[in-house]
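re: that chain from earlier
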Amino acid sequence: MNETIKKYIRIIDQELINLPFGRYPENLYDPIRYTLQLGGKRIRPLLALLAYGLYHEDPTRILKPALAVEVFHNFTLLHDDIMDNAPLRRGKPTVHNQWNENTAILSGDVMLVRVYDLWLEVDPDLLQRIIKEFNDCAAQVCEGQQLDMDYESKAVITEDEYLQMIKFKTAVLIGFSLLSGGILARADETDNQLLYDFGINLGIGFQLMDDQLDVYADHEKFGKQVGGDIITNKKTFLLIKALELSKGKDREELRKWIRMKQFNAESKINAVKNIYDQYRIKELTSEKINQYFRTAHRDLDKISVPEGRKDHLRTLTEYLMNREI
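^ sequence. v structure.
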């Protein structure tokens, strides 16, 4: 990433730490500070700033609204980690492990409430539009999470069903981040739609890459448990394709590991990865990832600002396409 993007990330990190959430009771507010100080790529607020920067010179003018997107994102992570029983987040214990589930739920609730304080920084004539778009997005994120949980008990999930689920769970918030920057910059509606579409395609590619990294990432770099999706039988793109393509003994072995209640985690990960490798699942996933990133590039190409103003968004997209974490 270039120096301008790194500068914006530093600003976002510092402002998140300084947000006045509250101090008492400590067990309500300490988990919020803990969560926000775990770091992360800050992709969503960064995209809001960069979208605004397509039209205006100083994107930090919308810093507080951009932070609203990041606080909401972290609120969803607190609750998602409980639902997934995830032990780690960014290499550190999740809030429900560091404290307890009830605390994680309540701290997340406060984060959501405070998101609306950050939206109050929006110009009054744009506030209703932003709140309506945000609420629609937030509802879709919840719909995506519900579908994800529903699919845990559903025997067969199609590729299209999975892509629709990750669109809601992940991509709509990335799309909204870009859209919010466009709305606050008072871009025309054609550009706003292109910004949103760019974000949707970027977000689906981003989530597919997360699926792939969960299986194939370097543990030291990834910050989460590598193979966690395999251990929990999470119906990712990789597992869906493996169930679709595997045959005979391979298919039966894959189903055996899915049904097994007690097992050695490392043995299961290695066995399932071996089946993935036999059927080129990693390569098929990479092809699908690249398909969505190429479509995102085409959306960005169509936005009606001088090409040089798109450089930062192109740089960030290239980083996301080639990331290892």
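Residues 124-152 form the longest helix (29 residues).
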